[in-house]
Amino acid sequence: TPTESSTLYTAPITITETRVRLKMTHFTAKVSGAPAPPNFNLGSLPGVFTSAGITQIQVQTSSVTEFEKVTGVSGLADGDTVSVKGLLFSATPDPILIAKKVRKRL
Q1: Staple partner for 83: which of 27, 32, 65, 103, CB 3.0–4.6 Å?
Q2: CA 70 → CA 22, 35, 97, distances in Å?
Q3: Cα separation of 86 and 89, whole Å?
Q4: Is the pTM of this model over 0.85?
């Protein structure tokens, strides 16, 4: 029986798959800092992120990213509120969102 001072070690779990399904995520936050096309950072994140210790997310855009109410990353500024949709990946130092859509909130 384990005690408070003992450590349990288990073998790593190996999973083999032929397909992986990725789901889009979407949320609203504020542009943090000056955007550097094609990327920008988001801060003032929803509580689901901040409660996990995430304070910033890097957004990466491409030629296939849809922009709404803004012409592109160069049309964004520090403090702008945007809604983003895309695939979110864990990364160091900050998570990365590969943007499918960026909508500037007015």
Answers
A1: 103
A2: 27, 13, 18
A3: 10
A4: no
Chain segment 8-49, per-residue pLDDT in tens: 666 777 878 888 888 999 999 999 999 999 999 999 999 999
Helix (H) or strand (E) holding 101: strand 96-104
Instruction: Determine which helix (DSSP H) or strand (DSSP E) holds 28, and give its type and residue range.
Output: strand 25-31
Torsion of CA 83, 64, 69, 31, to 10 degrees: 40
| Gap between the Cα atoms of 46 and 84, Å rounded | 12
> In a 10 Å sphere around its CB, with 0-12 CB exposed, 13-18 middle and 19+ buried, how is residue 67 labelled?
middle
